[in-house]
Design goal:
With 290 residues, the chain is of the alpha/beta class. It has a single domain, classed as Luciferase-like domain (TIM Barrel). 41% of the residues lie in helices and 15% in strands. The protein has nine helices and eleven strands. A nine-stranded parallel sheet has the order 3-2-1-11-10-9-8-5-4. The chain has a two-stranded antiparallel sheet with strand order 6-7. The chain is globular, with a radius of gyration of 19 Å. It starts with a strand and ends with a helix.
Amino acid sequence: MKLGLELGEFAWDGGPARIADTLGRLARSADSAGFSLIGVADHLWQGPHAGGPEQPMLECFTTLAALATHTEHIRLAPIVAGVHLRAPALLAKTVTTLDVLSGGRAMLGIGTAWYDDEAHGMGIGYPSLTDRYGMLDEAVQICLRMWSGDETPFDGAHYQLGRPLNVPAALATPRPPIMIAGGGEKRTLPLVAKYADVCNLYPTPDLGDRLATLRRLCEGIDRDYDSIEKTVILPFAVGPDGSGAGELIEFLRGLAALGIETAIGMFSDSDPVRLVDIIGEKVLPAVADA
């Protein structure tokens, strides 16, 4: 099993003046320890689970670009980009730029989003969930078209592009991987089976059933189920003294037995570098063979 990190909280020691330094140290530590992925939450407001809009939140792709300058190996991704926040061509161009500047390490995580208060507060359109699913389908199609070099017009129900030109091309081969987040059996998992290189689920008691559904959906369209990287996102509840590491290791081993290949850790700590170091030292080696 591989481990990744998701950065979604930025109330770190030293306040805003130290965020850049902390981010750089965290990135270098994660990269050298062998973490496979750093993701950044795609929000303009901090979520209610982390204290709400008055708490610090960094813009996703600017943060990913900063992370790229401090790393050499680790993959970089929004986890996950809200489909309503950017026009698909802008999203494809942004991920391409991150990929070129990072030497081919960008991944697109994308989903239907959920934070309606943020959208309304910032004057951003927030269509119905049905429309957002339609937008997600078309956005992925547009990204795939732009990353393949296909400049033919795109005429969809939500987006129309006269010439989806993308120069320079991404460095990733054959293109940046696409993660589609969510485990809904009626709408999300069919999109995963159809388009995604990576799925992202929660480690809930029905995880095995979600994976079985994804397998059936893949079989129904003659897609290789094993070609999709299986990931989950969950809190990494490890104390500053390493307490909780044993329990986390056992839980991750159980996920690996279900077929999960990458576990992406969310964490809340005023000193995130310390936590990354502890997980890199105690947890990562213990699950590497799981």
